[in-house]
Design goal:
By secondary structure, the protein is an alpha+beta fold. The chain is built from 5 helices and 8 strands; from the N terminus they run αααββββββαβαβ. It has a domain of 165 residues: L,D-transpeptidase catalytic domain-like, CATH 2.40.440. It is 28% helix and 19% strand.
């Protein structure tokens, strides 16, 4: 038989009576309180943010996005002080007239045959950055029969052994009788036999500082643009296939 004390104990155990709230009720109240307080804090956060924006001075808030920066004007490169400046202008005009033949127009090479063979007269010019590098280059023996070291004339005729003037497009790089070499395709009536004549850029022992020290000039080629062997890789690396080489000699009126 269950006593009143037992019944009261049972009821206390099940949470029906007692001085404090039942355990499950406390837990339930804790979750609701937590949710209530969390929502109150979230609302306060939104309210504070709204108050902060409303309180910010109007002049401190950007009305329009800042304008985009204006691109710098293209750099104008001048070669006016260079000894090959006049020939370079002719070369640039040829580059424009043969525009269909070139996809690479950043660098060109000019062979300035106004200068003697002892001088650095083959110039690779960066038309964008303004830098240039210069090399020794031989002319053909048919252009200098007396081996004076100066080019006297041009020829496009087969077996002339002479240098040809005009614009060339650099072609394939290959290995032949001169070792590494690069083909040249003549684009003008003054040099359009270049491929049939096997006119190329190649290295040669007779084009060097030592040869000049001994003879006062470079040796002569058979019409090719022969350069120092140790400089050939650098030159081919700067040009590569698809760029222009321009060879000429500007005759001064009255000279």
């Amino acid at each position: 038989m269950r006593t009143k004390r037992a019944t009261r104990a049972d009821r206390l155990h099940h949470g029906g009576l007692g001085p404090g709230p039942p355990l499950c009720y406390i837990n339930s109240m804790d979750r609701r309180s937590f949710t209530k307080f969390a929502l109150s804090g979230l609302a306060l956060s939104f309210l504070s943010d709204s108050i902060g924006k409303a309180a910010a001075p109007e002049g401190l808030l950007p009305k329009n996005p800042p304008p985009a920066p204006v691109p710098a004007a293209p750099r104008v490169v001048s070669f006016a002080g260079k000894p090959y400046a006049r020939l370079l202008e002719k070369a640039k005009a040829a580059l424009d007239s043969h525009a269909h033949a070139f996809t690479l127009r950043d660098r060109i090479a000019i062979a300035d045959f106004n200068a003697p063979s002892r001088d650095l007269r083959l110039h690779v010019v960066d038309l964008i950055g303004g830098q240039s590098s210069s090399y020794l280059v031989a002319h053909g023996r048919g252009s200098d029969p007396g081996h004076s070291g100066w080019l006297h004339s041009f020829s496009n005729e087969p077996n002339s052994l002479a240098s040809s003037s005009g614009a060339y497009r650099t072609g394939d790089i290959y290995f032949g009788q001169h070792g590494q070499a690069m083909r040249l395709i003549g684009l003008d009536p003054t040099n359009n036999n270049a491929e049939n004549r096997a006119i190329v850029v190649h290295g040669a022992d007779y084009v060097s500082e030592d040869h000049i020290a001994a003879w006062g000039k470079c040796g002569r080629s058979e019409g090719c643009l022969a350069v120092a062997r140790h400089m050939l890789p650098q030159l081919i690396g700067l040009l590569g296939p698809g760029r222009m080489v321009y060879a000429d000699k500007i005759t001064v009126a009255g000279a």
